[in-house]
Design the sequence.
């Protein structure tokens, strides 16, 4: 166990490990690229949907069922399926990661919108705001903490699942996990897993920082 | 892309049944042991304010480790066994189960707890007969999420040979054959749906007071 730990520290700290095309720096950047792109694409798809469902209070069943479906959909199966259908490209990975992110963002956005006090939106309509103004100026700012929670949860899951890119022969930190698994090299697997977890935690902290700066005017609400 | 090979299905009913049962034999113990670990931890987090952040934070960090890595990391401890798959998934259920149980206990009205204590119940009895039953709807919501998530995650354990229906994904991937993959995805979704329905029924049976309330209203 002690030997394993010292090997791990050595693996993580040797400068040769960090440089080059297969080095940690390169893999880290690939991993960040996959994760950010997938989370962003997920947000672009999910935010309008969540806002629409929350604003109109229609198709609420869609938001609820989508969440259940998203959780039940096995990511490995989805990646394999898109891979077999479309061949070797990053598409299988992005499809699977976006499918992971969308339900989380939709349901949290929807939850944030329904938590807005109806008295407030009524008052906004009463002073003559249009539906879009109510959505943009009242509901969205009030729902923002939960919207951000959704984005952060989606990002954590995407970062941790982006390891799957290595399964279909792409890069990212999953490379170390899959290669280590194939080579029965536990240190490499351990190092890869630690880096993924650290990246997820760091990106989450960064998002928390963004969230705090967005809510500087009312710190009590920032979670 | 090759079309779905329908002839595959009747030929493999036996395999699909075996794999489905195998899938359940990993998912069910994982959720149950998750509950056994999560409940006491959640009670501690609910009672001891100082430990709350630590317990919730630790379970959050565990959630960020890729599930595949968990299985591999457990290999030296538990070996290439079913136990490895179950342990890895158990750890994954903790974040949802602990968070929901703490939230459920927090939502119990203080007067209910105080009334029970005033009537002479000891704290443990109050916990078991008043607080946990009142927190049950929120706890069950967590159990449902954890169960559906676990059923979907079992397939990741196919890399260590215990993936239940996930074996169909590896099989299809290696042979570039789409049909078993589609079957695996569909069966996983179906299994998750059924398990969720069973849990809704269990909750209905376990909370008779909630039913009476709706009848009176």
Sequence:
């Amino acid at each position: 166990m002690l030997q394993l730990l010292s090997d791990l520290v050595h693996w993580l700290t040797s400068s040769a490990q960090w440089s080059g095309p297969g080095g940690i720096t390169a893999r880290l950047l690939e991993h960040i690229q996959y994760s950010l792109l997938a989370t962003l694409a997920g947000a672009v798809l999910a935010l309008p949907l969540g806002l629409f469902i929350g604003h109109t209070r229609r198709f609420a069943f869609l938001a609820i069922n989508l969440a259940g479906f998203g959780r039940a959909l096995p990511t490995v199966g989805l990646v394999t399926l898109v891979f077999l259908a479309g061949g070797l490209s990053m598409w299988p990975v992005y499809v699977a990661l976006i499918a992971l992110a969308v339900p989380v963002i939709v349901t949290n956005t929807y939850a944030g919108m329904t938590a807005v006090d109806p008295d407030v939106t009524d008052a906004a309509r009463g002073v003559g705001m249009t539906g879009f103004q109510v959505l943009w100026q009242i509901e969205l700012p009030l729902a923002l903490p939960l919207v951000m929670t959704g984005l952060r949860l989606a990002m954590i899951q995407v970062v941790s699942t982006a390891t799957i890119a290595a399964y279909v022969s792409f890069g990212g930190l999953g490379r170390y996990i899959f290669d280590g698994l194939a080579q029965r090299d536990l240190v490499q697997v351990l190092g890869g897993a630690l880096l993924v977890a650290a990246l997820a935690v760091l990106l989450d902290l960064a998002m928390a920082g963004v969230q705090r700066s967005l809510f500087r005017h009312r710190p009590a609400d920032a979670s | 892309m090759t079309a779905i090979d329908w002839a595959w299905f009747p030929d493999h009913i036996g395999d699909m049944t075996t794999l489905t049962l195998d899938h359940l034999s990993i998912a069910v113990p994982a959720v149950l042991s998750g509950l056994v670990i999560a409940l006491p931890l959640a009670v501690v987090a609910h009672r001891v304010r100082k430990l709350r952040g630590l317990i919730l934070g630790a379970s959050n960090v565990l959630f960020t480790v890729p599930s595949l890595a968990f299985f591999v990391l457990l290999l030296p401890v538990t070996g290439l066994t079913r136990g490895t798959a179950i342990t890895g998934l158990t750890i994954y259920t903790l974040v949802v189960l602990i968070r929901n149980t703490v939230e459920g206990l927090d939502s119990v009205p203080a007067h209910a707890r105080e009334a029970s204590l005033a009537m002479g119940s000891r704290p443990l009895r109050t916990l078991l007969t008043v607080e946990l039953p009142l927190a049950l709807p929120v706890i069950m919501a967590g159990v449902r999420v954890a169960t559906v998530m676990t059923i979907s995650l079992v397939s990741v354990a196919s890399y260590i040979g215990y993936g239940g229906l996930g074996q169909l994904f590896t099989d299809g991937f290696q042979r570039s054959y789409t049909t078993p993959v589609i079957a695996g995805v569909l069966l996983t979704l179906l299994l998750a749906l059924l398990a969720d329905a069973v849990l809704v029924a269990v909750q209905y049976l376990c909370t008779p007071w909630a039913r009476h309330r709706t009848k009176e209203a």
Remarks:
- Chain A touches chain B through 36 residues (CB under 8 Å).
- Residues 5 and 187 of chain A are 8 Å apart (CA to CA).
- Chain A has a mean pLDDT of 87.
- Residues 27-215 of chain A form a domain with the MetI-like fold fold (CATH 1.10.3720.10).
